[in-house]
């Protein structure tokens, strides 16, 4: 600080400036003080670096069946049946799997898919949940009771069972696709859709409860008196005011979606592992070699654990940051 | 009260209809159940067609749903494929208590569920008891010693605990307590099935096989439930009436047990009540890993074979249980908390 700092702006005491912080800025300040949440951000950043830059650093090796050096995803899919379930070594730091593929490279490329599934499936779930909740609450009447009956019906079926039934419904119907130059099974898309379709119900209820109380407030009546359309009221007045639970649900939804993909693939009903690895399908069947090849499940399982853990920490930090009243004693 | 119960039951009926239609539609494209019927020689096309006709799978979807719902004993079916309906149907439909027959084993669905349900209940009720006891103990302890070393440790551990994927924990437990202990020459725990066939299904043997699955399932739930107990306990402990009770000379533990815990356990009761019906479902992933012959396994095995009467049976049983337990939870809650009026 300058010795002769006389202007209040320079020492940061300008009252006008202090008041100008938006609720989002205030939430961000509280979030930064949340130790576990910041630890979560740190771990998650490392994991994202691992699945992106890691591919350039670690994913290369000599593929014996093709008799040449391979890099990137091709290396992750190179199956050398002469080297099945080898323990971790210099050539394969995480060992090899049941058909002789490099586990390290597969955790990198599988991690990309798992994270993409997490984010996109959570987005699908959040959009659905928000829309259903907002529409039910705003219009009320028979629309409300119909949508809420449907929501309750979905909640009455255990979510994993619902997910399995839905996974079976779509399985084998979608051709392979090409995204950003990467060949992958169309199952990736369907798993995103079904996880989204089976995970919106809790958020719909929260948004509905919030919108129900918001729509009775004066500013909504004022907006309606000014002639705003229903869509405008919902999207510019009601939803922004219920943003906090939506953001929290979106964050926790990412962790939930990654776990759900892992469960479905673990049970062999998810994404087939031939051309697209995921952390989930790396686990499929791995428990049969529990004793002889623990690296088959340990590495993908631990990456899932770390991702879910860090995302949950972040979600918890966000919850406290948005609602200082609800700070749960940590 | 009676009015409330009647109204809730009436509301549940359309809900169960929505669930059944939704599930029925989803299951119709599971693939051809007849195609997966195992035989050493693949069945001839005409055999398949006959089988499909006998099972009623050649009927349009809405007919199949009506038969599943209300039976077909009031209509004639064309069994021999000559275009003339001559055989009277035998099915009574789920509304009259006929849950149908498995397409794979041809046994009544209810009988198959009844075979598996006890196995699942033995496992899940034990889990639930362990969860209730430990989350109360851990939660109350943390609340009483707020911000102590142990409270902070428990908090950190339970944060990690409730993010733990169940398969990771299960595999880790097996690796430590079965594989690891065996290698070190220590007595180790069994990991597969309910009992060792060479020993037989004795109580002790089943209990030994239950240790790891019960531990796996309860650790994750205790981690999250003890948080609820802790926060509701803390909320109650800060109330004036607790101070009053202490001030008038009641003992510490009397206040904790009679005044604080009783009120703090209300949200916990709801949590457990809404959890109970899902016990029937068992735990799909855990039952798969530990090869536990329960409902989750039954469900998975019959998903693979597109055996929709069994799947419908399991899911409808759970849905009905959920409806009943929601109602029971509300009623119990209104007894525990007289401020709440059901109407």
General description of the model:
- In chain A, the strands form 2 sheets. Chain A has a two-stranded antiparallel ribbon with strand order 1-2.
- The radius of gyration of chain A is 24 Å and the shape is elongated.
- Chain A has 330 residues and is mostly helical.
- In chain A, helix 2 (23-32) packs across helix 14 and helix 5 (103-139) packs across helix 12.
- Chain A contains 14 helices and 4 strands.
- The model of chain B has no long low-confidence stretch (mean pLDDT 81).
- Chain B is flat, with a radius of gyration of 26 Å.
- By secondary structure, chain B is an all-alpha fold.
- Chain B has helices at 2-27, 45-54, 61-70, 109-144, 149-163, 166-183, 203-237, 240-247, 252-275, 284-289, 295-304, 308-336, and strands at residues 76-77, 87-88.
- The N and C termini of chain B lie close together (7 Å).
- A two-stranded antiparallel sheet of chain B has the order 1-2.
- Chain B has 2 domains: 38-102, no CATH class; 111-168 and 219-336, MetI-like fold (Orthogonal Bundle).
- The A-B interface holds A 36, 149-150, 152-154, 156-158, 160-161, 164-166, 168-169, 255, 259, 262-263, 266-267, 269, 283, 287, 290-291, 294, 297-298, 301-302, 304-305, 308-309, 312-313, 316, 328-330 and B 14-15, 18-19, 22-23, 26-27, 29-30, 146-147, 155, 159-160, 162-165, 167-168, 171, 174-175, 179, 191, 227, 230-231, 234, 278, 281, 284-285, 288-289, 299-300, 303, 306, 311, 314-315, 318-319, 322-323.
